[in-house]
Amino acid sequence: MENFFVNIAGLIRDLIAGFGLNETLVYLAMVIVKFVAVLVFVLLNVVVLVYMERRVAGFFQERLGPNRVGPQGTLQLVMDIFKLLSKEDIVPAGADKFVYKAAAYAIFVPTILVYMVIPFGKGMNVIDLNLGLFYILAISSVTTMIIFMAGWGSRNKYSLVGGMRAIAQMVSYEIPYVFSFLGVIMLTGSLKMSTIVEAQQGVWFIVLQPIAFIVFLIAGNAEINRGPFDLPEGEQELVAGYHTEYTAGRFAMFYMAEYANLLAMAAIGATVFLGGWQGPWLPGWLWFFIKMYALVFGQMWVRWTFPRIRVDHLMHLNWKVLLPVSLANIVVTGIGIKVYQMVRMMGWW
Amino acid sequence: MNGQGLIKGLSVTIKHFFSPKITELYPEVKPKLPESVKADFDLDREKCIACGICANACPNKVITIETEKDENNKRRLKRYEMNMQYCLFCGLCAESCPTKAIITKQNFELAAYSRENTKRLLYQADKAPASETEPGAKE
Amino acid sequence: MAISNQESGFRTQEFVLNMGPQHPSTHGVYRAILTMDGEYVVDVENVVGYLHRGMEKIAEDRTYTQFIPYTDRMDYLAGILNNWGFVMTVEKAMGIEVPERAEYIRVITGELQRIASHLVMVASMALDLNGYTPWMYAFYDREKILDLFEMICGSRLTTSFMRVGGVPNDIPEGFIPKLEKFLAELPGRADDFDNVITGNEIFVGRTKGVGVLDAEAALSFGLTGPNLRASGVNFDLRKAQPYSVYDRFDFEVPLGENGDSFDRYNLRMLEIRQSARIIRQALDTIPEGDIMAKVPKVLKVPKGETYCHIEGSKGLLGFYLVSDGGTKPYRLHLHSPSFVNLGAYPKMAKGTVLQDAIASLASIDIVLGEVDR
C-alpha cells in the first residue's frame, strides 16, 4: 500500500514511454498527468470539505446540518454547485469588467500552484523544488492581489472596504507567517519539502517548535481569511466583502477557492510541523491525509467558536504579539542549535 | 483572561459537538402540537346558530357568513367561509362563539399554491362538507 | 485614530455607505446612512419607517379586544409584554380588578417572554460579532420557551395571550413540570453561553468601551430599560412603581457601570437569571381562583384619557389611550422603547470603526416592528 500511488505513476510513465517519446517529453507528460491528478484531488477534497464544514458546524451548534440530498446529505455540494452554475451571471453595470471577471478565474490559480510542491507521501509530489517552502510563500502571497482585484473591480463600497481589509491583513500576517517557518528551516537547513519531512523522522517539529506552530496556526488562519480573521468577508459588516457582487459560477469559484486554501494551509502545516507522511503502521499518504484533516477540523472548531476580531485588534495582535514572539522564537532556536552543537562537540551527551 | 476565555469557549463547543442533536426531521417526523394550538379551524354545523358573533369578533374580517330563513322563520346557516390569508390566528372567533361551534385544530400545514386556495369553505348549504376541501389539496 | 489628511500629506476622501434597509445586521429594515473615512465612521444618520404599518391608526378601527392581536406584532419578540401593556391600560381606564391567579399567570408568562426576548438579544449580539454557535445555543433555549407558550397560549410568537380582565387560558396540564425542567436547565445553559461568548477575549475586546453612554447622556436621550440600567441608572418599573403583583417578589435589578456595549449585553444575561428567579417564586406562591374578572361582553371605556406603562423587555412600554366613550379607541399612542433607544445610536456609533458601530447597534436591541409600528 505504501507505494500505491507511486506505482500507478510509474505505470503511467511506462505507458507514455511506450509511445517512443524521448526523456524530456516523457518528463513533461508526467508533470501534466501529476498536475491533473492534483487538480482532481483538490476539487474532490473541496467537495468533502464543504460538506464537512457544514456538518461540523451543525454538530457544534447541536443540529444535524445538511442530511437530505443523497445519503446523509453527501451530495449537497454537488447540488449547490449545479444551482450556482444555473443561475444568472450578473456583472454590475459600473464594474471594471475585465478586472471583475479576471479575478474570479485567477483566484484558483495560486491555490492550485501551492499544491505542486506538497509531498502527499513518500515521493508523491509533482515537483520537489529545492526552494519548496519559499515557493509556497511566494505563490500564496499573490492571492492578496486577486482579492483586491475582486474588491476593486466590483465597484461596490462594501467590496472595496473588504479588498482594503484583505490587503492590510494579508500583507501584515505574511511576516509572522514566514517567520514561523524560519525556525524549522534553521533546524533542517533546507527549503526542500521532502527534506523537511525526512528531518522529522524521529521527532516532529511541533515538539521542537511549539511556539512557531501556534504562530503558524494563527497567521495561517489570517492568511486564508477564515474566522475569527474573516474580516475581508465580514458578513455582519460588509455583507460578503470582496465577493459581494459575484454571482453564479464566479461566486462558486471564490467559494471553492476558500476551501482549497484551507486544505492547502492544512497540508503545509502537516508537512512542516506534523511530520508529513511519517507515521507507523499505516501507509504514508494515509498518515498525511489524517494529519491534514485533523488540522482542518481544528480550524473549523476555532471558526465555529470565536467571534470575529476587530480591525485594530487584528493589527495589534500581528505587530505587537505575533511578530515579537516569532522573532524571539528564531533567536531561541538559534541559541538552542548552537548549544546543542557545543554539547555534542564537547561530548557531554 | 489571557486566552483562558478562548480555551473555555473551545471546551464548551466540543462538549456540544458530542451532545445529542435537537434537529427535528420535519416532513418525516411531524411535530405533535399541544391541544391549545389554534392553527386551523373547523365548524361544528350542528352547533352553529348562525348568529354572526364570530364574524364581528374577528379583527381582520376573515369570516364571511351568509344566512337564510327557514320555514319556521328561524335563521339558518347558508354559507361559512374563512379567508385564511388574512387570518391572525388569534382565536378570538372560537373564544367568542356562544355555542363553541368553532373548533381549533392543530393542522398547521396551510400553505397553498394559489390565492384562491387560501379560502376555506367551512360550510355551504348544498355542497360537500368542509373538511374535504383542504387548502392546497386541489392544486 | 486615523491619521488626518494634513499630517500624512495624502489626499483621502470620505464616502457615504448606505447600511440597510437590507443588510445582514440591521435587525430588519432599519437603515443607517454612514459617512465613512476608511474604516472610521464619521457620521451616522438614522432612517426609520420601512416597517410602518400604521398600528395607531388600525387601533382606531378595532374594538379593544380586537386590537390585542395587533399588539403582538409590534415588538414581535415580546408579544406577551405588549399584550400586557395594552390590556393594563384598558383595565386602568375601565377600573377593572384583575383576579390574583390571572396576575400570577401574567407574571409567569411575561417573565418567560422577557427571558426569550433577552435571549434573542444576546444571541443576535453574538451573531453580529460572528459568533454563530452561541447564537444557536441561545435560540435553542428560546425554542423551549416558545414550546411552553404553545402549550399555554396556543401560539409561539404572536401569542395574543392577555384579555381585558385576565387571561384566556388557565395553566394547562403538563405545563408546570415542563417549566420546572426549563428553569432547572437554564442556569447551566446560561453558564455555557457565558463561557463561550461573555468570557471570550475577542468578544470582550470588541464590546468593552464601545458605544459608551454615561448616565447623563442616557437620561437625556430618554433611554429606558436595560439600556438605561447599563449606564448605571437604577430605574426598573417593576421596582420603582410596582404594577401587577411584582411587589410580592424578591429580585434584584442588575446595574451596569460603564454604559458600554458589553454592559448592555451582560445586563441582559443577568436579567435572564433574575427573571428565572421571579418565575420560580411565582410558581411557588400561585393561588387558586378565577382567571377572568367579570367584564361586560362589549367593552366600553369611559370617556377620558389614560396612560399606563409597564417594563417591557426593551424598556418602558407605554400606551396612551383617548376614549370618547365608545367601543373603539378614539386615539391610541404607543410609546415604544426601541424607537427611543435607537435615537441614541448616532452618538454611540460616531467616531468608532465600522465593526464597533455594528456592535453598538446590536447592543441597543431594537425590534423594527416596534420602532416603526
Written description of the protein model:
Chain A is an all-alpha fold. Chain A has one domain. Chain A is built from 15 helices and no strands. In chain A, α1 (4-17) runs antiparallel to α2 (23-60). The longest helix of chain A is centred in the first third of the chain and has 38 residues, at 23-60. The model of chain A has no long low-confidence stretch (mean pLDDT 84). Chain B is α+β, with helices and mostly antiparallel strands and 139 residues long. Chain B has helices at residues 4-17, 53-57, 92-96; strands at 40-43, 63-69, 75-83, 102-105, 119-124. Chain B is elongated. Mean pLDDT of chain B is 78; it is low at 135-139. Chain C has 373 residues and is mainly alpha-helical. Helices cover 49% and strands 11% of the residues of chain C. In chain C, the strands form two sheets. A three-stranded antiparallel sheet of chain C has the order 1-2-3. Chain C has a three-stranded antiparallel sheet with strand order 4-5-6. The longest helix of chain C is centred in the first third of the chain and has 29 residues, at 100-128.
| Topology of chain B as a string of helices (H) and strands (E) | HEHEEHEE
Instruction: Please give the share of residues in helix of chain B.
Output: 10-25%
**What composes the largest sheet of chain A?**
none
The secondary-structure class of chain B comes to: alpha+beta
Question: Termini separation of chain A (Å)?
Answer: 39 Å
- Oligomeric state: heterotrimer
Kindly state the mean pLDDT of chain A as a whole number? 84
Topology:
The complex is a heterotrimer of chains A (349), B (139) and C (373).
Chain A: H1 4-17, H2 23-60, H3 76-85, H4 97-106, H5 108-114, H6 132-140, H7 142-153, H8 157-188, H9 193-198, H10 205-208, H11 210-223, H12 235-238, H13 248-272, H14 284-303, H15 311-346
Helix pairs in contact in A: 1-2, 2-13, 3-13, 4-7, 5-6, 5-13, 7-8, 8-11, 8-15, 11-15, 13-14
Chain B: H1 4-17, E1 40-43, H2 53-57, E2 63-69, E3 75-83, H3 92-96, E4 102-105, E5 119-124
Chain C: H1 5-8, E1 15-19, E2 31-37, E3 40-47, H2 55-60, H3 64-72, H4 79-94, H5 100-128, H6 132-152, H7 175-198, H8 201-207, H9 215-220, H10 226-230, H11 237-240, H12 261-285, E4 304-311, E5 316-323, E6 331-335, H13 337-342, H14 345-349, H15 354-364, H16 368-372
Helix pairs in contact in C: 3-4, 4-5, 5-6, 5-12, 5-15, 6-7, 7-12, 12-15
